[in-house]
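agent> Task received from the user: take the single chain below, predict its 3D structure, and emit structure tokens. No templates, no multimer pairing.
agent> Plan: (1) validate residues, (2) run structure prediction, (3) serialize to tokens, (4) report one or two observations.
agent> Step 1 OK, no nonstandard residues flagged.
tool_call: predict_structure(input=
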Amino acid sequence: MLARKSAPQAPNPNFVQCKGCKKTLFLADFEANLWVCPNCGHHHRLTWQQRVEVTFDIGSFEQLDLDLYSGDPLEFPEYEEKYAQAQAKLDQKDSVVSGLGRIDNKLISTAIADFHFMGGSMGSVAGEKIARAMERGVEKNCPVVIFCASGGARMQEGLLSLMQMAKTTAAVDACRRNGIPYIAVFTDPTMAGVLASYASIADVIIAEPKALVGFAGARVSAQAGVSKIPGDFQTAEFVFRSGMLDRIVERSEMKSTLSQLCGLLGAHLKGIN
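)
tool_result: status=success, residues=273
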């Protein structure tokens, strides 16, 4: 007789596997450790809600720009369907969420990219929200903190997506002209058009450990014949050694670090109090 195959067991909701070391973690401990593996230190990707939870004062975050969502100007095949699916699955309208919040009671204008929404790709809505966060910092006279997480521009929107590089860069310049400090936080991954625009021109740039940072992915570099690259190529540690980052910050220290930076750089701002 043939042995019966046992039915596949559903995963235990009380445990999760680390994507770094592959060890099984107790979910409650994992969440208490801010979604960082206690064994290998791997910083798992956060949703925008989780980022708010670990960064801003409880109940202080107000989401704004809720009416923005992308159309399908190029009538790109299947884009409208995939966009609607991402919206329904994640209960959000695009890859970036913007608003106002407080860190240790300091008012902050912020935009948070969520990689879970179409790879955090920057389309017209994401660029508009980034620009509005900058403009809001000028209006409210408070620091701007942008959390970056993206694979790059959203190809389904073509040039409308690439235009966001120029628009967000101009918004950074407006902050600079008005004395508004802008801090960029590189999370995993921060790549391509996002890195080549607003992300890399902040007044202060910090990153979470081992976040992927670069323009073209490692596979593209390999196809281009790049050889003899370091083992940690295109990580936060690599770009820090190259002088692109100001500091690598553990997630457990992120809130206090941002509070100190905003307090120092924004001491002259009325809106911070």
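agent> Step 4: summary for the user.
The CA atoms of residues 158 and 232 lie 32 Å apart.
agent> Done.
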